[in-house]
Amino acid sequence: MENFDVAVIGAGAAGMMCAAVAGQRGLRVVLIDHASSLAEKIRISGGGRCNFTNRDAGPANYLSENPRFCRSALARYSPQDFISLVKRYRIAFHEKHKGQLFCDDSSEQIIDMLVRECGAGNVTWRRPVDVHEVRAGTTFELSTSAGEMTAASVVVATGGLSIPKIGATDFAYRLARQFGLATVEPRPALVPLTFTSTGWEPFAALSGLALEARVSTSAGRTRGDFLEDLLLTHRGLSGPAILQISSYWQLATPLTIDLLPQFDATARLLEAKTGSKKQVVTELSGWLPARLAEVWVAVHGLAPDARMADVPDRQLRVLGDALNRWTLTPAGSEGWRKAEVTAGGVSTQELFSTSLEVRKVPGLHFIGEAVDVTGWLGGYNFQWAWASAVAAGQAI
Ligand code: FDA
C-alpha cells in the first residue's frame, strides 16, 4: 500500500498543472494516467504549436449552466500568470489572431515545461496505470493496476469525451455518479456541423471554400454570435465561425449566417440594378467567391446568365436578404471523433468555485474539461485547465 497526500487522476493539461502546484507546496503527490503516450491533447493542439492561452480570456468566453462559476479561478490565475511561466522556460511564442498565443516551435515545449514543473514538486508518476476503483473513507483508497494506494485528497482531471482514439474516457462522469453528483449531459463542442445530403447537395461541390461570415444561433436564453472564417465541407460547415457556434447550437434549431456582414446586400443589389447590363453572377462575384455566387444564383432559381436589369426587385430582395440572413438547420455534428472539446460535465452546483472541491465529499476535486465549463476556440480551454488546476492545487 502506497500513501500519498494527493492522487491526481489524469495527466493532461489540468492534471499536470495541479500535481505540480500541490507538489511544490510540499505535498506528496501521485499523478496517474492510463495512456501510454503523455498529454496527447497538448501535443496535437493548435496544429502542433499549442494555442496555450488567450491574452483576453475572461468569464464571458465560457459556457456553463452557471456562467459565474469560472470567475474565481480565472481571476486568481490569469493568462498573464501562464505567460510568465512560459517566459520563465524561455519558450518563444507569438500572437496569431484575437489574443491567441501559440508556441513558435512545438507544443512539446509546453509538455516538457509541465513535466519539469512536476519534477520540481517531486511528483510520483504512475503511467500507464488504470484506476479500477476509488473508495472514500477517512482517506481515499484507490485500487489501480499498479496496486493499492491511499490519498487524503483525490483530484479528477480525466477530461471529456472528445477524440476517444487518444484516450478520452467517461471516468469523471462515472466517478461523479458513484458519489451521487449531478452532471450536465456531455455533448460534442467546437465541432463541424453537418446537413442532410439532399439539403447540402448544391453546396457540397464548394468543399474547401472559405470566407468571413457572421454566424449566430439562440437556444433558450443563450445566444452565440461570431464573426470569423466559415469553411464549406463535403458534409456541411466548419472553420472557426462554425466551431465557435457549435458550442451554442442545439439540435433542431437554426443557424443564421450573414455572408456579407459589411453591408446590406438587398440595398446594394437594388442600387446596382439601375441601368446595369451586368449578369447577377458577375455582380455577386464582386462580393463573394465566384463559385459561391454561381451556386447562390442557381439555388435561388435564377438562370446562370440572368441580367440584373431583368430580375424583378422582389426576387433581388429575396436573394439579398438570404445573403445577410441565410437560415439553415444542421442535421447534426461530426461528433466526438472531431470535437475539440466536451460541453457539459460535472455540474458546477456540486463544486466550490474557489477550490473545485465537491461540496458533499471533502477532499474530492474535479478540474479541467471534466467540469461543466467550456471555453471558446482560441486558447480559452487551456486557460481554464490551468486556472482550475491551480485553484485546486493551492486549496488541497
Ligand atoms: P485532457 O484531455 O488534456 O487530459 C485528460 C487526461 O486524462 C489524459 O491524459 C487522459 O489520458 C487521462 N485519462 C482519461 N481517462 C482516464 C482514466 N480512465 N484513467 C486514467 N487517466 C485517464 N484548447 C486550447 O485552449 N487551445 C488549443 O490549441 C486546443 N487545441 C485542441 C486541438 C484538438 C485536436 C483537441 C482535441 C483539443 C484542443 N484543445 C485546445 C482543447 C484542450 O486540449 C482541452 O480542453 C484540454 O486538454 C483539457 O485539459 P484536461 O486536462 O481537462 O483534459
TrEMBL record:
InterPro entries: BaiN-like, BaiN-like_dom_sf, FAD/NAD-bd_sf, RsdA/BaiN/AoA(So)-like_dom, RsdA/BaiN/AoA(So)_Rossmann. Keywords: FAD, Flavoprotein. The keyword Iron does not apply. Residues 187-341 form the RsdA/BaiN/AoA(So)-like insert domain. Its cofactor is FAD. Residues 5-394 form the RsdA/BaiN/AoA(So)-like Rossmann fold-like domain. The keyword Flavoprotein applies. It holds the Pfam family HI0933_like_1st. Coiled coil: none annotated. NCBIfam families: aminoacetone oxidase family FAD-binding enzyme (TIGR00275). This is Ferredoxin--NADP(+) reductase.
